[in-house]
Amino acid sequence: MIAQFYYKGLIFVAQMYKTISMKYILLVLFSMLWFHKTQGQQMLKKSPKADAPAGFVTVDGVQFKIDGKPYNYVGTNFWFGPQLGLPENRARLLQELDQLQALGINNLRIMVASEGPESEPFRVQPPLLLSPNEYNESILEGLDFLLVEMQKRNLYGILVLGDFWHWSGGFAQYLSWVNDKPIPYPSLDGGISWGIYMDYTYKFYHNPRAKKMYWDVVTKIVGRTNSITQKPYTADPTIMSWQLANEPKSGPRKKAYRNWIKETAKMIKKMDPHHLVSTGSEGTESESLSGNRRKNYICNHSENIDYLTAHIWIQNWGWYDPHNMPTLATAKTKALKYLDQHIAIAKEMKMPLVLEEFGIARDAESYAATSSVTHRDGYYEFIFDYMAKNIKEGSPFQACNFWAWGGLGRPRVPRSVWQTGDNLIGDPPHEYQGWYSVYNTDTTTHKIIMKYNKQFGLVD
């Protein structure tokens, strides 16, 4: 169709050459170029993945589909899945997956890439990458086992391939390996600020050697063949999406950040044209303060990215104080405003939107697993209900993943700092344990999750 447009346009220019001025000829040529840059690229990018194998999650306009049927979900973040895939943890993994399935949770966001060394603090253990080019094969085999068991239960995974934050190693660890300098870890109780850590990590996008290490890991994972089924990952419908990283942020490196997104997404699509690709962005909150954040977000999701993501953190962003309950109403208003901004962008770009991270503390910010979750339940239902309303109205807001599933795990001590040997739960090692985790005993929360997944046909 685009080729025909050019052909007819050139004929028109030739026919009119003798009767109109050069000014108008240039105007026609400019219009053709504009069509190619905007409408032509949109047509190529937005077309449904009709050639995707059976069972794959695809994008059709603003909808997710599986074999032509709409796919909506209340999913969760289950970032520690590969570690639970280790032989000594598999009994727990199977119980977790069984309960998730019973709740209708059939979409799991999983941190696949984790970088060592094992001696570093605030770090998930054991990691995938022990040192540059030295892989922990047991973690890869744990991921293989996880994917096999997920497929048995019709669960789909968003596989995260990197991290802006230090709790999985991430970009900061690659920089540390390249520069042979320590990471400026932000402290839970003062000390080094988050700003200093972020300024350090922004340098990743400008560092060719650090990016090469990251791309080597991406290539290793995307190109892997499952050791149990002998099926290439590129042929596995259990994988919904490859995600570039967890909460990548631009900072002042706007151009380098955009180039990293484009180069990585293009590389993945070349290796695997059938699976979806997403960025893992928090939304406009992750964009550079210089320039128009909305415009930057759109530009950063315009090539080889299949759907949009947003995260909302009402307490972390200072909107909500769990010890001052009137702030919850204000926080909900701000949350919807932020979400609506991204729904509007998704409508403009004709892409689905997933709210893939949001959470809230237990009542009065208790870290004890036995404490009440009345306010969490209310906030979850508020988000789920708004999503269901949007889906009914044909909105791009198609799915969500709450943060995060803790399941059978428990902190060594509530509000403790994670140490090697502690249970892995929904709260990463750099955060106090028990903050946002949803446990297997949080039955009131389970009922709300089931209520909405039943609407989406995910509960028998």
Write up this protein.
The chain has helices at 2-16, 22-46, 81-84, 90-102, 137-152, 170-179, 194-201, 208-222, 254-271, 293-299, 326-349, 374-392, 443-455; strands spanning 57-60, 63-66, 69-70, 73-77, 107-111, 129-131, 134-135, 156-160, 239-243, 276-278, 308-312, 353-358, 397-402, 405-407, 438-439. With 460 residues, it is of the alpha/beta class. It folds into two domains: 1-46, no CATH class; 55-455, Glycosidases (TIM Barrel), CATH 3.20.20.80. The strands form four sheets. An eight-stranded parallel β-sheet has the order 10-9-8-5-4-13-12-11, covered by helices on one side. It has a three-stranded antiparallel β-sheet with strand order 1-2-3, with no helix packed on it. Helix 12 links the parallel strand 12 and strand 13. Mean pLDDT is 91; it is low at 1-50.
Largest sheet: number of strands, sense, barrel closure: 8 strands, parallel
Unreliable spans are 1-50
Number of helices: 13
- What is the average of the pLDDT values? 91
Query: How much of the polypeptide forms β-strand, as a percent range?
Result: 5-15%
Which structural class is indicated by helix and strand composition? alpha/beta
Task: Could you tell me the CATH topology label of the largest domain.
Answer: TIM Barrel
Distance between the termini: 45 Å
Number of domains: 2
Shape: globular
Task: Write out the CATH superfamily name of the largest domain.
Answer: Glycosidases
The radius of gyration over CA amounts to 23 Å
